[in-house]
Amino acid sequence: MTNSFTCTTTEGHAGPFAIPTDLLIGGQWVAAVSGKRIDILDPATETVLTSVADASPAEGIAAVDAASAAARAWAATPPRKRADILLACFHAMMAEQEWLAQLITLENGKALADARGEVAHAAEFFRWYAEEAVRINGELSVSPGGANRIMVQYQPIGIALLITPWNFPAAMATRKIAPALAAGCTCILKPAEETPLTALAVAEIMRRAGVPAGVVNVINTSDPGPVCGDILHDPRVRKLSFTGSTEVGRILLRQAADQVISSSMELGGNAPFLVLDDADLDEAIEGALVAKMRNAGEACTAANRFYVQRGIHDAFVAKLVDHMSAMKMGPGLEGATQCGAMINRAAIDKIEHLVADAVSRGAEIKLGGRAPAGAGFFYPPSVLANVQPGSEILSTEVFGPVAAVIPFDDPQEAVSLANATEYGLAAYVYTNDLKRGLQMAEQIEAGMVAINRGLVSDAAAPFGGVKQSGLGREGSHHGLLEYCEAKYIAVSW
Ligand code: ADP
Fold it and tell me: Do residues 258 and 276 share a domain?
């Protein structure tokens, strides 16, 4: 009898199944041999929702055994069949969009509107990669010397370890699982210890939608270092895809180096949001609210630094304060909430530290700036103006609903400020001069630049960073190729 958690929506819908809270290994839900469990908290109330099995390194290797046993048959499954299964996963997820959204809100704290958006975005990876599974085209050419043909075939890279963070517990999982399966790889998912329930629900949806045993395995652990370390030292594992902090990314890259494991890394960001004098103010505010407040700022693409040109600066700050002050902070499941709970106490402590540091260096608090008393990990929408150079908030992701605004005079100076970081994930530019916007987009050191938009994520677009924000891309055809090896066959005929 497997352990489970019944998630019932506020409308009384108990979902298609009780969510198994054990480990998924070889198509079976199994309890941890140690009997250990990890408590899962509701960040809005700080109460324990349930617990999940806590895997040991041996169970990580059991998951590799299962992924290995399933690998050959899955790689040989016709692409159309793989596509059909992925499409079934898309439809099954969308059929339970509201239930999954409420589950995400329960364990992550985000506002329900954000969670609904996440489920749709997450499911879209299944649909996109169902379409990609049948389009893994090779190449054929005549060698320049004319002696032979150069044939290139894309083959599944092998067993993949997928490690995901807590901020998008559904989308970060499907963004990795879907291309892995489309390419013909089997995998082991290691969700974040704060938010495993969503991943477990998605895994059960996939199992019921026809994903064969062993193709997707799920391991929760409170001790990810040794569990993932052992998996990365198993010679059968050939791929690592990680989304999380740059610090942990570095540790994993070092471990992956031992067996030269192909590594895709989506790491930290420090996104600049540039507003030029000629920008449409209302559009810039609308974009700023999306870039800053989606997920209450808990996104690696979240705007962290607002550089606003002098001529529009005061109007921008005033309007931003106006709009952010109207945003309702509260438990994510309450319909009117736009700014839900942060993930944990440490997140609140970090935000408080960064705000205090900025204020001690001369920043003015125009809105918010203080966590409320009482239960739940809440921080209100906040605006800091005149943030001074050297403030920690300019070099560290705040990962919360705090907008730090800095004036500038010359657009070239703004590009230099935008680039003055070791990160390079997303950047935003608002201007009505598209020529200048495109020139700036080319100069900004980021993997993704949004011009007159506050949102970049799209299953059909290559998501990823430059500099210390990561390696490789997720989403689009590029994301599929991360799970493929190019096999070159030299052939004469
Ligand atoms: P965050 O600071 O956002 O929690 P982390 O980088 O710490 O980000 O965590 C992202 C993911 O990496 C989580 O699934 C976490 O369990 C995992 N993780 C943390 N430390 C390690 C480690 N040493 N080895 C493997 N995975 C790890």
Answer: no
